[in-house]
Specification:
heterodimer; A: mainly alpha; MetI-like fold; 2 domains; B: alpha/beta; D-Maltodextrin-Binding Protein, domain 2; 46% helix; 12% strand
Chain lengths: 281, 444
């Protein structure tokens, strides 16, 4: 009964993970990749180097910081859009499709387009009346947040819209009968029901942003400016440009552990892992 | 009935894939019967001439089939990063293309993997002899003559394009041969909305070549005998000159902090810049279609380092890095002799001349190169090819190159504010030095 799914999980997740953990204990670089199984075993030296000598800590800080910012900022925008398109009106289908466009565009298309917008003599500076760099320097962090927010909010919108569909119409009627205005209705009736979908959207959005490689890579290139040195790009540079495979896998494992812990805590708190409602047995 | 047909289909599929996996282990050698053998060659996609490249693939396969009976299947990679990834995966898997066309700067990294055939005397004979190649192009085939893996295939030296009209209008007859002289000429040429120099500061590949050239010319190359010299005074001066063109000398368009190489070429093509350094002959196609067609010419880049008026003692007058493509044969290939025969075909005088005529890349075959020497439009490029100097042959070069580029990337915010912060530059160079030296120490 478990067999097809279990075999697939084994092949696609467990085996590569085990190999990765093994590689992180090896001194694997361009000189030893050919006979990689025979590379020198250096135990935890890679981890020490990753934490102490490389930019890993800095990259983790940037990745977690910007992901949290983007995920939190996506929520009000997504919710507003979901609530606004909740009621039927003429052209709602078209509006809903247009709202999804940023999300379905491939990341490299988004990155390339915004790269042009953010050029020193590009549209962004002309519209805002500013000058200076968006793609390097301190503003680059905000450029990344802005673009990721632009591309990511439809996810919250999708999940919130789906959650709204499942709301019982009688609850709305009861609230109206009690004389609740639209704000009170929103705050006390609609939003509490959306806690589940929104939490899920937050989790997915956060994980997606932490792991997002294509967008920062296309927007800023390598080597990345120090303000937007995110974890996936750092790992990519270490393995595919510096050929330091052992080191980059150690970095990846460290980041996996760091992200897994709060995720596990969070999932437990919202009972998403057991599927049972809070307060029930 | 359904289950039986399904089982039959699955077993047929498995059998089929098993059969294709068992390739034939031997071929007839370069002269024997090779019908049915297909060699695979990996090379970079040519974005300027994609149609012609596809046609060239068919021609080569046809010619090779006539000579040996085997055909050639070409695979392409889109960028240097793809090339590296393909090499890594093939090296680990022990299977993949038989022949690779590599950029010269990546030959040391490929050599470091130990996965490519080191050419002995009879291997060189099988590709037509080592002396059929221009001596300068052999500079990055291997760490020394006994351990060469790369066979030179195409030459793409770097030169500088200059706007003849702008120079004549300012009374300058030709570009200076020193970097300081070039800067002074650029200052003369910067007026109204035109600038002296077009530089792509945000390009991922250009910046380090300037630093490499200036330090090599000064006699203190960034890497020598396994030691990195990124924190030396000449390296710092090189960065100050390069960054200073925009920050302090103001001879570059301020928007250039966001330009890649293609944007710098575009600016020159619009007539907005007088000099366009660090381009290869592939820019000819773009510039001949631009507003400066017929008004520009190529010259070699300055060979006298910043801060000097003549080449210092120990300095090397390098006009360009040794740039182009080398061809390497994989050790895991089951058709080594055939692969060498293919390389012989690709580097023959006839093939090299026709490759030049189609794609504009200079030949590495001596006879073909000599025949081209007469073309005046190419004079500077052929000259630069002869005076190119190879980048250090070490497996750590990729990291050194990245460290050099990183200093420029992290200096760009200050650059656009109009300054080159001395303290910050020193700090960045110190970090780059320790990264580069660390990589060199690990080199085996």
């Amino acid at each position: 009964m478990f067999l097809p799914g279990g075999v697939l999980t084994l092949l696609v997740i467990v085996v590569p993970l085990a190999v990765a953990l093994y590689i992180s204990l090896l001194d694997l670089d361009q000189y030893s990749i050919r006979e990689w199984v025979g590379a020198d075993f250096i135990a935890f030296d890679n981890y020490v180097e990753a934490v102490r000598d490389s930019h890993l800590v800095h990259a983790i800080g940037i990745s977690l910081g910007y992901s949290a910012l983007v995920s939190l900022a996506c929520v009000p925008v997504g919710l507003a859009a979901a609530v606004a398109t909740q009621d039927r009106f003429r052209g709602r289908g078209l509006v809903r499709s247009i709202l999804l466009v940023p999300y379905v565009l491939p990341a490299f298309v988004v990155g390339s387009t915004w790269r042009i917008i953010f050029q020193p003599d590009g549209i962004a500076n002309r519209v805002l009346g500013t000058d200076g760099l968006w793609l390097n320097g301190p503003r680059s962090f905000w450029a990344l947040v802005l673009v990721q927010l632009w591309a990511g909010w439809p996810l919250v919108y999708l999940l919130a819209a789906a959650g709204l569909q499942s709301l019982d119409a009688t609850v709305h009627e009861a609230a109206a009968l009690d004389g609740a205005g639209w704000w009170a209705k929103l705050r006390y009736v609609v939003l509490p029901q959306l806690r589940g979908p929104v939490s899920l959207a937050l989790v997915i959005s956060f994980l997606h942003n932490v792991n997002s490689f294509t967008l920062p890579f296309v927007l800023f290139g390598v080597p990345s400016p120090v303000d937007v040195e995110v974890l996936p790009v750092l790992t990519y540079v270490e393995s595919f440009q510096n050929f330091e495979f052992g080191l980059s896998v150690a970095m990846a494992v460290v980041s996996l552990v760091l992200v897994a812990i709060p995720m596990a805590v969070y999932l437990r708190a919202v009972r998403l892992d057991t599927g049972r409602e809070r307060g029930s047995r | 009935m359904h289950r039986r047909t399904f089982a039959a289909l699955v077993s047929a599929l498995l059998l089929g894939s098993a059969l294709t996996a068992c390739g034939s282990d031997d071929d007839g050698g370069a002269t024997g019967d090779n019908t049915g053998v297909t060699l695979t060659m990996l090379m970079g996609v040519n974005n300027i001439y994609p149609e012609q490249q596809r046609q060239w693939f068919t021609e080569i396969s046809g010619k090779f089939q006539q000579e040996t009976g085997a055909t050639v299947r070409f695979e392409t990679f889109a960028s240097a990063n793809d090339e590296l990834t393909k090499i890594q995966t093939s090296v680990v898997a022990g299977q993949g293309p038989d022949v690779y066309a590599l950029g010269t700067t990546f030959t040391p990294t490929a050599y470091a993997t130990g996965a490519f055939v080191e050419l002995q005397k009879d291997d060189w004979d099988k590709v037509g002899g080592r002396d059929r190649f221009l001596p300068a192009t052999l500079g990055i085939s291997g760490p020394d003559e006994q351990h060469e893996v790369g066979i030179p295939f195409a030459s793409r030296p770097f030169v500088m394009a200059y706007n003849k009209d702008l120079l004549t209008a300012a009374g300058i007859d030709k570009p200076a041969d020193s970097w300081d002289g070039l800067r002074d000429q650029a200052k003369q040429l910067t007026k109204d909305s035109t600038y002296g120099l077009a530089i792509g500061y945000a390009d991922g590949f250009d910046p380090w070549k300037f630093i490499w050239a200036m330090t090599t010319q000064a006699g203190t190359p960034v890497v020598k005998d396994g030691k990195a010299a990124l924190d030396g005074p000449n390296t710092k001066l090189a960065y100050q000159s390069y960054l200073g063109w925009l920050a302090t000398d103001k001879v570059v368009d301020p928007a250039a902090v966001g330009w890649k190489n293609a944007q710098a070429i575009a600016a020159f093509g619009e007539g907005k810049a007088a000099f366009l350094p660090m381009v290869s002959a592939s820019s000819k196609v773009t510039l001949d279609k631009s507003a400066v067609a017929g008004k520009y010419a190529y010259a070699v880049m300055p060979t006298i380092p910043p801060g000097a008026t003549a080449l210092p003692a120990g300095g090397v007058a390098a006009t360009s890095i040794l740039s182009g493509d080398n061809v390497v044969v994989a050790k895991y290939s089951k058709h080594k002799d055939l692969s060498l025969a293919l390389v012989k075909l690709l580097t023959s005088e006839e093939s090299q001349t026709s490759y030049y005529k189609t794609f504009g890349e200079l030949p590495t075959n001596q006879a073909a190169a000599k025949a081209l020497g007469g073309d005046p439009a190419l004079a500077a490029i052929v000259d630069s090819a002869g005076k190119s100097v190879n980048t250090p042959f070490t497996g750590a070069w990729g990291q050194v190159q990245l460290a050099l580029t990183n200093v420029v990337v992290q200096s760009i915010p200050d650059l656009s504010a109009g300054k080159v912060d001395d303290g910050k530059l020193t700090g960045l160079l110190g970090q780059a030095q320790s990264t580069a030296q660390g990589a060199l120490d690990k080199a085996k």
